[in-house]
Amino acid sequence: MAKSPPESSNGSGQNCIKLSIPSRLEYLGVLDQLVQAIAEQMDFDADARDAIANSVIEAATNAVQHGHQHQSDLPVSFWFEMKGDLLDIWVHDSGPGFDLDEVTAADPTGPEGLLRSRGRGIFIMRAMMDEVEFDIRQGEGVTVHMCKQVTPPSDPGA
Amino acid sequence: MKIKQEAIGDVYVLRLSGQLMGGPDADAVRETILSALNQGYKNLLVDLKDVSWVNSTGLGILISSHITVSNNGGFLKLMRVSRRIDSIFMVTRLNTVFQVFDSEPDALASFQGDSASSPKAES
To answer: Which residue intervals define the domain STAS in the entry (chain B) (predicted)?
Structure first.
């Protein structure tokens, strides 16, 4: 089960920024600027800032294109929770959901997938973030939770 | 996203700016490439210097363009790719699909060794 966004849990959300955008690709530029600013404030390095922004844009692209089928009156919601050196992000759409296993079955970097024009979004998110989870519920939509830490966690055995 | 286009010798250069992310961008790039092919150009060069980011749909546009040009016996190459976009190419292994050049002179010169021959732009 994916972790819930701050407002639906017991957390106060005091270090949380919430954003809602219409389901239009034109707003992804605004989203990119916000994500970059949040990541910079948390002292992520340039590569990590880009990785986070790329991942949020992929999640948002999926929400707009597949979840909401470009219906601009349907909002895509984002939560950015900053806890020390950990950034938790949730992206929610109210679409019908999808079969995660089916969507991620093909390897987009393999010989058969390399020249396919689709099917890389989740792969990119998983490659660029520390964790990516999906909460897909019939009638309630899709929530993607992902997180990234400023510095890699230390070896628990150390 | 905006597209500026120019022919430099037998190379047709598309200079993209903004963000490459699908929607109308796909049609704009496809129509520009088909127009270049219809004019007889086989060597196409896409300048990404002013593209701030690309999403997976934008990658699909580049891949479709690559396939279209290849199927017409031509070459599609990229130049001046930002560190951010390059990181996506590396993760998705599209760096093994596209020839990418850091500079315009190097990119233009690279077509000299290719077998595709395009007509000079008509005056």
So the answer is: 25-111
With an 8 Å Cβ cutoff, is A112 touching chain B?
A: no
Give the ipTM of the model, two decimals please. Answer: 0.88
Phi, then psi, of B3 in degrees rounded to 5:
-125, 125
**Could you say which of B87, B94, B96 has the minimum Cβ distance to residue A47?**
B87
Contacts of A28 in chain B (CB under 8 A): 19, 21, 55
Domains of chain B: 2-108 (3.30.750.24)
Bridge-based pairing state of the strands B100-101 and A16-22: unpaired
What is the DSSP track for B73-107? Answer: T-EEEEE---HHHHHHHHHHTGGGTS-EESSHHHH
A12 or A91, which is more confident? A91
Q: Tell me, yes or no, if A29 comes closer than 8 A to chain B by beta carbon.
A: yes
Q: Report which of residues A151 and A45 the model is more confident about.
A: A45
B59 to chain A: which residues are within 8 Å by CB? 117, 120
Per-residue pLDDT tens digits for B22-47:
888 888 998 999 999 999 999 999 99
Judge whether B94 is closer than 8 Å to chain A, CB to CB: yes
* B73 closest CA partner among B118, B15, B30, B120: B118
Determine the pLDDT at residue B24.
Answer: 85
Query: Which residue positions in chain B have pLDDT lower than 70?
Result: 115-123
Q: Which of B83, B84, B88 sits opposite A124 (nearest CB)?
A: B88
Cβ separation A50–B84 shorter than 8 A: yes
> Of 3.30.300.30, 3.30.70.1290, 3.40.50.1820, 3.30.565.10, which CATH number belongs to A14-149?
3.30.565.10
d(CA A25, CA A70): 8
> Which pLDDT score, from 0 to 100, does residue B122 have?
45
